[in-house]
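Summary of Year 1 activities. Much of the first year was spent building the evaluation harness for sequence design. The harness presents a backbone, in tokenized form, and records the residue chosen at every position. We chose the following record to illustrate the format because it has been used consistently in internal testing since the harness was completed.
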């Protein structure tokens, strides 16, 4: 049976995971079985004792003392049960939080390609929602319910054996009815599993809308483009579908529980009526009847609880199977220690070579980079040029090891990328990305991050044109950025943020400088200064400069022209102007615009 395997696997996984930090968790079962059996025995014995005492004209004082002693013992035992259950539930919850933290750590350590892989990310959302994100998820209920289920089952067996000794058909009836209840619950489980999968997909979608709606960066667009209404609509629609599914699940649950309860009532009628008949016929003493009556009452409650617990358990186990699809991946990620067999160490990058590199994104069949080969040497300044979507950013992401070629090789100093540890490999690069990743920290921390450098922070502020901007701020380099963590934090303008990104890259001082549209937000003066100092910035380095302002590419030694993922041409600006019609066309369209602008200004 599929769910049986799933259940054992989930329990095995849980015990293995908790064994290190919470080794006592497994003793919950024997402890709870023991306490439950004692409670069951004493609880069943009390009415029998009362009936027996009444029938044998027992001395009242002795009777009262015995009752007081029993009740005191019961009270203490129940108190003890409450204490150890609270303690072990706390352990279980701590473990759930530990898993939640592990998910975050795994995400941070995973490679960039996985972080943009939609399949892995939707798996992550489903895993959290069903496994560990909140109370009543898989991890929250698996072990507590297993413990209750186990002590319930042992108690059921104990009652079955005792009652079997008195009358064989009584436990048989209970077994038949319980089996029918289980079959009903299995149907419930299968159907609920399907509904839960649909609900996970909705949850993923809702998370996206909520994230966007509350995202500070999107705040201006949402207000000025009147997007509030459409966000509400989308969230409402998502919630409506969610509510329908949840309602379906709830109704199904109630219906199944109604059947289980009906069977229980039927069971009581089948069992009790013949017993009462036997007492009236004098074939059963009142004491034995009371014992059977109490035991069967307990049995009824226990089977009902166990049926419910069983359904919760298979539910929790299915949730954990789903959660593990991502959690096992997290384990792999966290276990990888970024060690490679070879102990190659590169002191300085002399050459970078692409050998027939191709790449397609994880969710796409189509190749974004096609069969690209080139070699770049230390000191060379390269411009990557091409239309929007040609593949320039993808190419430099491959270069920096953020993406891995789907075929072909990338070599540094003739050593293949996979022969070097990723930590060493990524230390070669100082990138400025198109997106300004401003952190909630001081300007200084935003520039230095965790790097040590041969350059001073003053040097890089000057080279990146940031110095005068910083000097105007009251706390200078100690000014906090963004208001996420500090109320007096400031927001930089787009151009200032871009300068901070450039200062960050220069401070890291890697052997390869990668500038992806570094001047897009700069004012004309800052841009012009950057061009003038470009040669000095990239001296003794390899540099890749991506820009749509083709005039800027004249400052580089070699232009690589990318078209639809292919490196179609390379050479100096003059050479490409002569040999490449696409490049010439791009350049002419742009320079014509500038000439017209100049002409217009001239005539004013
Ligand atoms: N995560 C992704 N998954 C699937 N396709 C992607 C992903 N990122 C980019 N692409 C696709 O890859 C192609 C190349 O994108 P890339 O960002 O490399 O182009 P680009 O030359 O840098 O463009 P631009 O000049 O506009 O910055 C585009 O068609 C883009 O849609």
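For this record, the design step produced the sequence shown next.
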């Amino acid at each position: 049976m599929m769910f049986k395997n799933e259940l054992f696997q989930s329990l095995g996984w849980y015990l293995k995971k908790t064994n290190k930090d919470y080794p006592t968790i497994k003793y919950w079962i024997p402890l709870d079985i023991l306490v439950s059996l004692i409670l069951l025995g004493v609880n069943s014995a009390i009415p029998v004792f009362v009936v027996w005492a009444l029938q044998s004209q027992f001395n009242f004082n002795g009777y009262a003392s015995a009752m007081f002693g029993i009740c005191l013992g019961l009270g203490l035992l129940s108190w003890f049960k409450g204490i150890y259950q609270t303690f072990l539930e706390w352990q279980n919850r701590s473990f759930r939080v530990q898993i939640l933290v592990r998910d975050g750590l795994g995400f941070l350590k995973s490679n960039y390609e996985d972080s943009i892989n939609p399949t892995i990310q939707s798996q992550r959302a489903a895993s959290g929602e069903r496994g560990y994100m909140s109370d009543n998820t898989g991890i929250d209920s698996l072990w507590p319910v297993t413990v209750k289920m186990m002590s319930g089952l042992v108690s059921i067996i104990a009652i079955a054996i005792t009652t079997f000794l008195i009358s064989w058909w009584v436990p048989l009836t209970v077994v038949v009815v319980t089996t029918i209840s289980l079959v009903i619950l299995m149907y419930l489980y299968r159907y609920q599993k399907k509904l839960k999968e649909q609900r996970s997909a909705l949850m993923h979608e809702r998370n996206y809308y909520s994230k966007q709606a509350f995202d500070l960066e999107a705040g201006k667009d949402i207000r000025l483009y009147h997007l509030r209404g459409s966000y509400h609509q989308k969230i409402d629609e998502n919630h409506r579908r969610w509510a329908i599914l949840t309602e379906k699940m709830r109704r199904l649950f109630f219906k199944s529980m109604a059947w289980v309860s009906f069977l229980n009532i039927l069971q009581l009628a089948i069992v009790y009526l013949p017993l009462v008949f036997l007492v009236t016929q004098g074939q059963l003493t009142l004491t034995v009847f009371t014992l059977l009556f109490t035991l069967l009452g307990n049995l009824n409650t226990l089977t009902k609880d166990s049926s419910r617990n069983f359904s919760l358990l298979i539910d929790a186990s299915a949730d954990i199977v789903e959660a593990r699809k991502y959690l096992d991946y997290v384990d792999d990620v966290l276990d990888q220690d970024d060690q490679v067999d070879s102990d190659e160490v590169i002191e300085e990058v002399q050459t970078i070579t692409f050998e027939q590199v191709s790449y397609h994104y994880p969710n796409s069949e189509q190749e974004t980079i096609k069969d690209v080969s080139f070699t770049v040497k230390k000191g060379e300044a390269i411009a990557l040029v091409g239309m929007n979507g040609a593949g320039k950013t993808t190419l430099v992401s491959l270069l920096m090891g953020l993406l891995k070629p789907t075929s072909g090789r990338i070599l540094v100093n003739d050593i293949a990328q996979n022969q070097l540890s990723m930590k060493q490999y990524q230390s070669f690069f100082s990138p400025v990305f198109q997106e300004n990743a401003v952190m909630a920290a001081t300007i200084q921390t935003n520039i230095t991050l965790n790097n040590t450098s041969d350059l001073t922070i003053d040097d890089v502020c000057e080279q990146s044109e940031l110095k005068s901007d910083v000097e105007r701020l009251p706390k200078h380099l100690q000014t906090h950025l963004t208001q996420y963590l500090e109320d007096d934090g400031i927001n930089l303008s787009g151009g200032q943020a871009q300068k901070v990104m450039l200062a960050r890259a220069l401070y890291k001082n890697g052997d390869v400088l990668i500038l992806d549209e570094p001047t897009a937000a700069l004012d004309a003066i800052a841009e012009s200064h950057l061009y003038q100092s470009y040669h000095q910035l990239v001296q003794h380095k390899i540099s890749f400069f991506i820009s749509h302002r083709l005039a800027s590419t004249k400052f580089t030694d070699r232009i690589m022209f990318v078209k639809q993922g292919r490196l179609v041409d390379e050479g100096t600006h003059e050479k490409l102007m002569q040999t490449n019609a696409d490049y010439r066309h791009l350049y002419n369209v742009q320079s014509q615009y500038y000439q017209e602008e100049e002409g217009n200004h001239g005539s004013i």
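The longest helix spans residues 228-280. Quantitative recovery figures across the full test set are reported in Table 2.
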